[in-house]
C-alpha cells in the first residue's frame, strides 16, 4: 500500500464523516426546538459544506473547489451575523 492509496482512503473516510455530520446538523435544523438551535445548525452546515468542497478540491486537484469554499465561507459568515442580529434586535437593518 503506497502513500497515494492511503491518501485516497483518508479522503473517502473524511468525506463520509463530513456527510454524516451534515446529516446530524440537518436533523438539528429541522427538529431544533428554538430559533437559536436552528441558526447554530445552519452555521454548522455552511462550515461542513465548505470542508466538503475543500476535500473535493484536494481529491481532484482543482482550484475551483477552493474558490467555491471561500465563497461559501464568506456568505455563511454574513448570513450568520445577520441572523444573530435579527434574533437579538428583531431587525437586520437599523
Written overview of the protein:
By secondary structure, this protein is mostly helical. The chain has one domain: Orthogonal Bundle (Helix Hairpins). The protein is built from 3 helices and no strands. It has helices at residues 3-31, 35-60, 64-89. Helix 1 runs antiparallel to helix 2 (35-60) and helix 2 (35-60) packs antiparallel against helix 3. The radius of gyration is 16 Å and the shape is elongated. The mean pLDDT is 91.
Offer a few descriptive terms.
Helix Hairpins, mainly alpha, 86% helix, 94 residues
Care to give the gist of this entry?
The protein is mainly α and 94 residues long. 86% of the residues lie in helices and 0% in strands. Helix 1 packs antiparallel against helix 2 (35-60) and helix 2 packs antiparallel against helix 3.
Strand-helix topology:
Layout: H1 3-31, H2 35-60, H3 64-89
